[in-house]
Amino acid sequence: MPSSFSNLPSVVWTLFAGTVINRLGFLVTPFLVFFLASRGVTGAGTSYVLAALGAGNLIGPAVGGVLADRIGRRPTMLIGLVGSAVAQGALFVAPGVWTMAAAALLISAAGMAVSPASYALMTDAVDAEHRQRAYALFGWGVNIGTAVAGVLGGFLAAQGYWLLFAVDAGSMLLFAGVVAVRLAEPARGPRPAGEGLGYGVVLRDRLALLLLPLFGAQLFVYSLTEVALPLAIRDHGHSPAVYGTVAALNAILVVALQPFTTARLARLPQIPVHVAGSALIALGVALTGIADGVLGFAVSVAVWSLGEVVVAGIGAAVVANLAPAHARGRYQGAFSWTWGVARFGALTLGVSVYTGIGPAALWWTALVVGLAAAAGTLALTSRVTARTRPEPAPVPAAPTPTPTPTPAATPVGELTPAA
Fold first, then answer.
1. For FRET with 376, which of 180, 211, 279, 359 sits at 20 to 30 Å CA-CA?
2. Can you tell me the distance from the alpha carbon of 267 to that of 382, in angstroms, rounded to the nearest whole number?
3. In sequence order, what are the residues at sequence separation of 6 or more whose Cβ sits closer than 8 angstroms to the Cβ of residue 343?
4. 231-241: b or e for each residue (b if 16 or more CB lie within 10 Å)?
5. Alpha-carbon distance 368 to 358, whole Å?
6. Could you read off the pLDDT of 142-183 as tens digits, one per residue?
7. Which residues, 6+ apart, have CB-to-CB distance to 334 below 8 Å?
8. What is the DSSP string of 112-144?
9. 33: number of CA atoms within 13 Å, CB side?
10. Which pTM was predicted?
């Protein structure tokens, strides 16, 4: 294992292992449209269920951040994992569209509540210098699990959709078991007098209010890779297998390059590295607009995949370093909520621009928005550095010299006689 990950505490490795297990079972959401069609749900009914799933991505992080600071990181993770597993079963047996939508809302809301708690737990366990590496390892686990799940899901779906639900729920319960057995709730300092448990602490942080929208814009551009890239491949007359191939390329590049890249980039200032990676993502997404054949799409995917590797862990680490100790869950909840908004925007605004105005408008928008957000983030470098710079260790005071006692005079007659 590269040195970038070798000195991280056991809490981080436990969360890494649990994340890989959980993502191995991330099977229902990618195949949800096909499952709904098998139950006779199409058209508007499918839109209602998918909208509920997207709404849960906005509700879950906000609730999870508050719970992580109020009742603790470990209880919040257990509630989210067990709740999402139960909701998987509810979705499978739901008799109609509205019950399916309610179950889908619970799946995403409970599942997304886990992220702020797990991120806050890593923040508690890792010092500021190593947080980027911890979050990069966490993201690496997500990619490993997702890459395997993509292959596993297609095989299981062919055998029966009930297997997707069983494996998805089982992986969540297994992760919950890991949390219950292997993780302890960390001690947290007292909350300042008069401060509530809402998001006021984040809303009063002017630097966070500047950074989070900029991160959100960059995440919106990245989320287009999940939403608009399949549309572009389809509209160029390629089969779904082509999308599967370029998606596999992304997974291979991230899994192969992440540990070694993080080991080298961790020595550099975080914000400039993040800006460079964000620019690569914007450029790679925009290159989709000039791709035609499989090679062109592969090149565009390779460019934004390199950007994904470069930025890994930095955004979450910066937010963690901005957060006061008593509000780490809510700061991570705000960051995860930004992720949810970005993905929701890509699903709605991104698709609307692509289908209503034209693909070229979306790719140009991605380039301009991505580069503008990167430039805005770069402009905040000095402020972020000043807020997140570690406090210098106090210089110990010089010890007060102890006076040497003057030996008492030897009384006459007590001299040692000479031999």
1. 359
2. 17
3. 54, 57, 219, 223, 226
4. bbbeeeebeee
5. 16
6. 878 877 776 777 777 778 888 888 988 999 999 999 999 998
7. 61, 65, 199, 202, 208, 212, 319
8. HHHHHHHHHHHHHHS-GGGHHHHHHHHHHHHHH
9. 6
10. 0.80
